[in-house]
Each structure stands twice: as structure tokens, then as C-alpha cells.
Design brief:
Elements: E1 3-7, E2 17-23, E3 30-31, E4 36-41, E5 46-50, E6 55-60, E7 67-69, E8 73-78, H1 137-140, H2 172-181, H3 199-208, H4 220-223, H5 231-244, E9 249-257, H6 259-270, H7 281-295, E10 301-304, E11 309-312, E12 318-320, E13 322-324, E14 327-329, E15 332-333, H8 341-356, H9 362-365, E16 370-374, E17 393-397, E18 401-407, E19 410-424, H10 430-445, H11 447-453
Parallel strand pairs: 12-16, 16-17
Antiparallel strand pairs: 1-8, 2-4, 2-7, 3-6, 4-5, 6-8, 9-19, 10-11, 12-15, 13-14, 17-19, 18-19
Helix pairs in contact: 7-8, 7-10, 10-11
């Protein structure tokens, strides 16, 4: 008994694997052509697999529940030559003299299969999911069996193949793709395991015919730029991935009316005590963060994995995220909590100026304890920032916009911003993170609180 292996076919939509849910047959069972032998499930649908051969099941190569790649043998079916019964509709006496009563199973001597398919011993073409029985279409479309024997008709009496029987084999999604692209599947060379046109065949045909043959090929280097990942970019990428997948992030938001702070800012800029000092909204936000950290110290802590300890810092090295020619950098102001407003403003101005020139030294990048990122300078309202590794919190400052706001029982145009804080939930509980953000918002909405607490 010769064995024929059935490979898991391409089930369409470019899927490369499927899960075999259950078998409907077992070793020793007799199966007929197109009999359902298994149920498989892809990422898109559950499909019943019909047998492409008639015979006896010799072996099942895949267990139910397994994930199988397309093209993997899943079942062996014996052709049953040694015990086959001649088909009553095609008597053995009808065969030409000297011809075998059944088609040979050796691939090297078998007659050509229609559309690249392997013909079975019964002269029929195996069926793939969604492809149809092309070899039987013309004779059985009317629903009545053919009459007469092969011996009654000469070679010239065979009808010409119909358009349906010569139709290229392809799954419905592949045909849909071809129609969308205006491609005749007959022009596409098939590479499927059973001679069918696959999605890859169609896309390859599109690639080959996308440009006229006489057009000059496009230079790939002119269409894209490849930049080696190194230096600051490599460090930033490693740090962000390490932070995102190590610290469980939580982000909270608050929208606040900062009109009083902006009015205070105007007065500070006019003060003779701050002459020559650049006072910005970031300076006042930084001062509010430093005051809020004093009231909520868990946001100025670190997780020591080696000793399994939480390290609470009694100093604040305030980091400022800066976009530089070398990439994202987070230099920090050492002992910012001990500085006056004037000293803090000068330190922040110097820090950002050096960073934008790409001249920040390693010392300024080390030992940060909490960070502020100002996305408002790009006109962005809010974000969900990723923690700087080794820190417990980062505050995101959004754009300050004039917009309608409820003020003293009426609607008025006020200057409003959104603040967001991301924190490491291993170190900071929700209550502590919320209180910190509420404190910052309260100080910005009422500068008196900033003076009192700062």
C-alpha cells in the first residue's frame, strides 16, 4: 500500500500557521475524497479540512491542540491499491490495451495533473480548502452522472475543457486580491504545494510588474536612511526599554487653571531682584515640584533590586528632559531643593543651554532623583512619560492655553494647562502619587500656596 502525505495547505489571508483543533478520523479508518478529516483554526476563522485522497489512514503526524505551520505533513493516507475495487462507472474493460487499470502512483510516471495538482488514482483532482473540485466540474454541474463508457468514445469525442475546469486554483481571499489589483490569475505562476496561486505569488507578480521594464530601478538608498544605533540614542533606547519593562508605570492627569501663576510670572520678570534672570513657567513648575516632593517623599525614592530595599532620598537632584542634537538627554540640577528661586532659574537656564549645545558632561547626567519633561514647548497638551531609570516619578508639563473656564461662577477665558505624573507603583501608592499631583496643581493655581510651602 503506497502512502501519500497531506500537507497543511495555505488557508488564505497570508496566514503561516493554524491550530489543529480536532481529528475526525484515526489510523485504520477508511476515508473518501473530500471527506472532512480535521478541524483547524487560524487567527481569522475555524475551517474544516477535506481529504484530498481516498484510501486508508495510516498515520496522524500532529496531535489535536498543536500549532502547525503551513506545508507541514499532518496525515498519511494509503492508496489501497492492493484491495481497491474498480470504479463501477469506469469499467476496467474500457481501458486501452496495455494500460494499467489504475493510474500509477509514482510521480515520475503519473500523467500531468490539471493546473499543477496531483491526480488521484480515480482521475480526480484533490481538493483544497475553498478551491472546489475542478476535475469534476463539467461532468457533474448538471447533477446527473455521465452515461456510457470510455470505450464508447474515441479520443476525438472528448469535450474540450470548459473555462471553469481550466480556471487557476486560488483561495477566495487570493482571488479577491487579484480582482482588486486588476490581475488575471492565469498570468500568475503558481507556487502552492498543490499548484494553487498563493497570496505571495500575487504580490510577487505585482512587484515584478510595478514598473515598466525600461524604467531605471530606484536607488534604495535614496528612499530611506539607515542610522547606526549608538551613543546617546543607544543608551536612551536601552534605558527606556529597561524602565518600561521593569517598573510598573501608573500615569495620572490633572487640568488646572494657572492664570494666577502666569500673572505672578509677569510680576517676577519685572522685579529688580531678578534682573537679568530668565524666569519661565518651567521655573515655577520646578519650584512647585520641589515643594510637593518635600510633602510626598516616596516620589523621590529608588528601588534597590540587589539589596531588596527602598531608598528614600533626602536630597533632590532635579532632572530636566531635553531634546538635544545628540538625542534625548536628562541632565539634572544637583541639590535643587536647597536653591532659591533665583538660583534655580539660573541653574535651569545653564543646564538647558549646555544640553542644547550637546556638551552635557557625564556628571550632570548621573544620580537624578525625579524628572520634569516639558512637552508644552511643542504645543502638546499632555503625555504619558516613561520613568528615567532609577527614579520613582516624572512630571509632564503640557502647553498653557487660553480657553473657556469656570471662574467665580462665570465662564471666562483663563490660562489652563494639563499636568501628568508617571510613577513606579512598586515605590509609590496611588494615594501618594495623587497627593503629589494635587499639591503641584494647587500651588500653580494659587501661588500663595507655593510661597507658603516652598
Amino acid at each position: 500500500m503506497g502512502a501519500r502525505s497531506f500537507l497543511l495547505p495555505d488557508l488564505g489571508e497570508g496566514l503561516t500557521e493554524a491550530e489543529l483543533i480536532s481529528w475526525s478520523v484515526g489510523p485504520g479508518d477508511t476515508v473518501e475524497l473530500n471527506q472532512v478529516i480535521a478541524e483547524v483554526e487560524t487567527a481569522k476563522a475555524s475551517v474544516e479540512l477535506p481529504s484530498p485522497y481516498a484510501g486508508t489512514v495510516l498515520a496522524l503526524h500532529v496531535e489535536a491542540g498543536s500549532t502547525v505551520e503551513v506545508g507541514t505533513p499532518i496525515i498519511d493516507i494509503g492508496d489501497g491499491q492492493d484491495e481497491a475495487v474498480p470504479d463501477a462507472t469506469v469499467p476496467a474493460t474500457a481501458e486501452p490495451a496495455g494500460a494499467p487499470s489504475e493510474a500509477p502512483t509514482d510521480a515520475s510516471t503519473a500523467p500531468p495533473a490539471t493546473n499543477g495538482h496531483e491526480a488521484t488514482g480515480e482521475g480526480r483532482v484533490p481538493v483544497l480548502v475553498g478551491y472546489g473540485v475542478t476535475g469534476e466540474t463539467a461532468g457533474r454541474r448538471g447533477g446527473r452522472p455521465a452515461t456510457g463508457s470510455v470505450a464508447d468514445a474515441g479520443p476525438s469525442d472528448h469535450p474540450a475543457p470548459s473555462a471553469e475546469s481550466s480556471r487557476p486554483l486560488a483561495a477566495p481571499p487570493v482571488r479577491f486580491l487579484a480582482r482588486q489589483e486588476g490581475i488575471d490569475l492565469a498570468d500568475v505562476p503558481p507556487t502552492g504545494p498543490h499548484g494553487e496561486v498563493t497570496r505571495e505569488d500575487v504580490t510577487a507578480y505585482l512587484d515584478r510588474n510595478a514598473h515598466p521594464a525600461d524604467s531605471a530601478p530606484l536607488d534604495a538608498s535614496a528612499r530611506e536612511t539607515r542610522t547606526p544605533i549608538k551613543g546617546v540614542r543607544k543608551h536612551t533606547a536601552d534605558a527606556m526599554v529597561r524602565s518600561a519593562f521593569t517598573a510598573p508605570h501608573v500615569t495620572e492627569f490633572v487640568t488646572v487653571d494657572v492664570t494666577p501663576t502666569m500673572e505672578l510670572l509677569d510680576r517676577l520678570r519685572e522685579s529688580r531682584h531678578l534682573a537679568g534672570v530668565r524666569i519661565t513657567p518651567l521655573v515655577l513648575v520646578a519650584k512647585a515640584v520641589l515643594a510637593a516632593v518635600r510633602r510626598n517623599p516616596s516620589l523621590n525614592s529608588a528601588w534597590d533590586e540587589e539589596t531588596r530595599e527602598i531608598v528614600t532620598k533626602h536630597y533632590v537632584n532635579l532632572g530636566i528632559a531635553a531634546a538635544t542634537p545628540r538625542g534625548l538627554m536628562v541632565p539634572n540640577v544637583k541639590d535643587a531643593d536647597r536653591m532659591s528661586l533665583r538660583d534655580l532659574a539660573v541653574a535651569l537656564a545653564d543646564l538647558t543651554a549646555v544640553a542644547k549645545e550637546g556638551k552635557t558632561g557625564p556628571r550632570d547626567l548621573e544620580d537624578g532623583t525625579i524628572t520634569i519633561t516639558n512637552v508644552g514647548v511643542f504645543g502638546v497638551d499632555a503625555g504619558t512619560p516613561i520613568l528615567n531609570p532609577g527614579e520613582a516619578a516624572i512630571l509632564c508639563m503640557g502647553a498653557i492655553r487660553r480657553q473657556p473656564w469656570e471662574f467665580e461662577g462665570e465662564i471666562a477665558l483663563r490660562q489652563v494647562t494639563t499636568l501628568a505624573v508617571s510613577f513606579d507603583h512598586r515605590l509609590v501608592d496611588g494615594e501618594q502619587g495623587s497627593r503629589f499631583l494635587a499639591d503641584v496643581a494647587a500651588m500653580l493655581s494659587d501661588p500663595v500656596a507655593l510661597v507658603a510651602l516652598g
